[in-house]
Write a structure and sequence with these properties.
Blueprint: H1 3-22, H2 29-56, H3 63-76, H4 80-111, E1 119-123, E2 126-130, E3 140-143, E4 153-157, E5 160-163, H5 165-168, E6 174-176, E7 181-182, E8 187-188, E9 193-197, H6 205-215, H7 222-255, H8 262-276, H9 279-298, E10 301-303, H10 306-312, E11 315-321, E12 327-338, H11 343-353, H12 360-369, E13 378-384, E14 388-393, E15 396-401, H13 403-409, E16 421-427, E17 430-441, H14 445-454, E18 459-463, H15 468-478, E19 482-484, H16 489-502, E20 508-513, H17 519-524, E21 527-530, H18 537-542, E22 545-547, H19 553-588, H20 594-613
Helix pairs in contact: 1-2, 1-4, 2-3, 2-4, 3-4, 3-8, 4-9, 4-20, 7-8, 7-9, 8-19, 8-20, 9-19, 9-20, 10-19, 11-12, 14-19, 19-20
Length: 621
């Protein structure tokens, strides 16, 4: 409980026994008013002050104004106990709501408490703790066992195990050694590591994630925008309704020769105002989405805004990239098929031609070659998007890529004998053979797709630049509804456009990619989901939802969180409006008194907030 909440609690604890005691004190008139004003002002002075400020700022119609008018009016009519009780219980509700929101924010802060407090830099043979913001790129920092990695970098010395649970939601540790990349936010569990930083702290993974989570509340869902607009018109409407209730019936009674009964109708109008306060909706709806985003963060699912969380519940088509999304993206050379040269010559030529590329296929060729590569033997490298590359290797013009590259160069190539990723090689315009590279399916990919189908996803589609035979093999193994192969990046956008046009009204499409080379498609889809995004800047930038590990099963989990959160939101809307509508009718008829009004306002708010907090839970997901 923070300082502000403690002060409010103290005021409530002081005022409550005073109001209870005054109920049994036999005093009347101005003395009674003076005695009741003491607890009333103790507990409610801030509400009165906010109401006056709101009027001064031309923002009259809010809950503070409603409470101030209702309670001041009750006191003016001599209903001192009711006026004090309304203000007292309203503040109890405010305290409860403040504590619930604070608790939710605290839970999320603890889940995302990955910001390092310091970085260890060596100065004069001693480790000195400095602010991570002060560490320049290229500096050597030391991370001791038990400390958090403060900045992204490359291990220069040491071996250790890293706990990535704060980023991925998984407890499975990650082994690192010299030469491997590490990202900020992980906890060093065992050995001493020396790391050369590759980014400033502000650009590192941990800073970008924290910024993403902090700004997620800025992008509101339709339900939140509805409540904001609803409150904008609802509050002035009920104020006008209360005024009409206070004036029209007494005037009508006077015209018909009956006693006006002003105090009775004014009291009904004041009761009407208390009942009408929209606190339950204004507080519980954003809190529900905030809880949903927090629960998702705990599982390593970062949602950039409640609008995306809401949209995920309406998703009916999911489109996948293949490599790194449904497959592991760890390529290995499975066979060599030389034409007019030896296997060793074919592999050496391919590895040299691809030596400047960071693509996983290029890395697999270099790994299979297994020897140090002299990059001085390679020049004039020219990448052909979606096709491959050409380069000058030992003075010979080498082309390495797919069948489309060979067609473009007018070189006939062999058809592969088995499914897999094929790299065709041509030397000085003559076909030299091909290298067959295989990529393994992710262990949980099939189960993840089955879970999506079970959750109501109508269509699963795979888009890939790989060959039709490879795509067919993957699609049949995973049970995909549809696949499209041999696509260029632009072709993927066109396919997504076609699939969007096929969706029924209100049905959305999500694209799942690695977030690095799929940015155009991630942006075009209704929802872009980045898979395997641990440390990927491009994923965090391009996607609407970022999965901090590479498990496709997280998508079904994210959909469950989305639908449960939206269910809680609708429950609160229906419950709050139904109770308030019933109580407003009873209040206008004079059946509901101030105590019913207190339940309709504070009671409904407390119940709605308790329901909203459920969205933070990850049980059963």
């Amino acid at each position: 409980m923070n300082k502000k909440q403690k002060k409010l609690l103290t005021r409530i604890l002081v005022s409550l026994p005073m109001v209870a005691a005054l109920h049994f004190v036999p005093v009347h008139g101005l003395l009674q008013l003076a005695l009741y004003l003491v607890p009333y002002l103790i507990v409610g002075h801030d509400i009165l002050k906010k109401a006056v400020k709101g009027i001064g700022n031309h923002q009259v119609f809010d809950e503070n104004f409603l409470m101030a008018v209702a309670t001041v009016g009750a006191m003016a009519l001599g209903e001192y106990a009711e006026g004090c009780a309304v203000m007292l219980f309203y503040q109890i509700g405010e305290l409860f709501q403040s504590y619930a929101v604070g608790k939710s924010r605290q839970n999320i802060s603890q889940l995302m408490d990955i910001r390092p407090d310091y970085a260890n830099m060596e100065k004069d043979g001693q480790l000195e703790q400095v602010d991570p913001d002060e560490v320049p790129v290229g500096s050597i920092i030391t991370v001791q066992p038990g400390e958090r990695v403060p900045i992204d970098g490359i291990v220069t010395e040491g071996e250790s195990t890293l706990n990535t649970s704060a980023l991925t939601g998984e407890s499975l540790p990650r082994e690192v050694s010299a030469g491997q990349e590490v990202i900020s936010g992980c906890v060093n569990m065992t050995g001493l590591l020396r790391i050369r930083t590759t980014k400033e702290f502000g650009e590192s993974t941990v800073a970008r994630i924290l910024d993403l989570v902090e700004n997620s509340s800025m992008k509101k869902a339709k339900a939140e925008n509805f409540i904001t607009k609803f409150a904008r018109y609802y509050t002035p409407a009920v104020c006008c309704g209360a005024l009409a209730l206070a004036l029209i019936p007494p005037v009508f009674r006077l015209l018909t020769g009956s006693p006006a009964a002003w105090s009775s109708w004014i009291f009904r109008a004041l009761t009407f105002l208390v009942i009408s306060c929209p606190c339950a909706l204004v507080i519980s709806i954003p809190l529900s989405f905030f809880g949903g985003i927090g629960g998702a963060s705990r599982l390593g699912i970062l949602v950039k805004g409640s609008n995306y969380l809401e949209a995920l519940a309406k998703t009916k088509t999911i489109v996948f990239d293949k490599t790194g999304t449904l497959t592991q993206g760890v390529f290995e050379v499975s066979s060599l098929h030389p034409v007019g040269c030896t296997e060793a010559e074919l592999l050496e030529t391919a590895a040299l031609a691809e030596c400047y590329s960071g693509h996983p296929i290029s890395q697999s060729l270099r790994k299979a070659y297994g020897k140090p590569i002299d990059q001085s033997r390679v020049s004039e490298v020219n990448e052909v998007g979606g096709h491959g590359l050409t380069a000058l290797v030992d003075g010979r013009r080498v082309a390495a890529g797919n069948a489309r590259l060979m067609d473009k160069l007018g070189i006939a190539c062999d058809a592969p004998a088995a499914p897999g990723t094929v790299v065709h090689i041509a030397i000085d315009g003559r076909y030299a053979g091909y290298v067959l590279i295989s990529d393994q399916l992710k262990p949980h990919a099939r189960a993840a797709l089955q879970a999506l189908k079970a959750s109501g996803i109508k269509k699963t589609v795979m888009l890939t630049g790989d060959s039709a035979s490879v795509a067919q093999s993957v699609a049949s193994q995973l049970g995909l509804d549809e696949f499209h192969a041999e696509l260029l990046p632009g072709d993927k956008v066109e396919r997504v456009e076609q699939l969007l046009a096929q969706n029924a009204k209100g049905e959305l499409l999500a694209f799942v990619g690695d977030g690095i080379n799929d940015a155009p498609v991630l942006s075009r889809a209704d929802i872009g989901i980045a898979m395997g995004a641990l440390g990927s800047d491009a994923a965090i930038e391009a996607a609407d939802i970022v999965l901090m590990d590479d498990d496709p099963a997280r998508i079904a989990t994210a959909i469950k969180i989305s639908r449960r959160t939206l269910g809680i939101v609708y429950q609160n809307i229906v419950f709050a409006l139904a109770v308030k509508a019933a109580c407003l009718v009873l209040g206008a008829m004079g059946i509901a008194n101030m105590w019913v009004a207190i339940f309709a306002d504070v009671g409904v708010m407390v119940i709605a907030v308790l329901n909203a907090v459920r969205a933070l839970s990850t049980k059963g997901l």
